[in-house]
Design brief:
Length: about 150
Amino acid sequence: MSGFDQGIKRDELRRLYAYWQDKRAGRLMPAPTDIDPLELRFVVGNLSLVDVSHDPLRFRIRLHGTNLAERSGIDMTGKGEDDYPYPEFARFLIDRFTRAVEQQTPLHERADLVLDGRSRRYEDLVLPLSGDGVRVDRLLVGVFYDD
């Protein structure tokens, strides 16, 4: 294990990171076409795929896992950042996704936050994907809530 994945507590997120590392195959990041949803059954309910567009930087949820939709009370599949009904949490996500795109590197966080009056205790992993090997055009995001 590298220093990065040693900080990941949830087994599913460690597996997701190992999967991303394997698909990266020595490149900066894997391509979206390298990702096979059938290989991600162990995490699919807690997974989001986020499309990234540039100029201006925008995010659209391609897939919002069923466990995440149940937890939030909404299914964000096919919706953009402006459709999220919780403004503080939306801003938090946009900032986090922006950092992953700009840094072109995985992000991991364990947090205990209150945003929009709702408690959010979770562990997440944000993994960048790139079709051309340089520009991030999708994010693979795994989230597990503690409650």
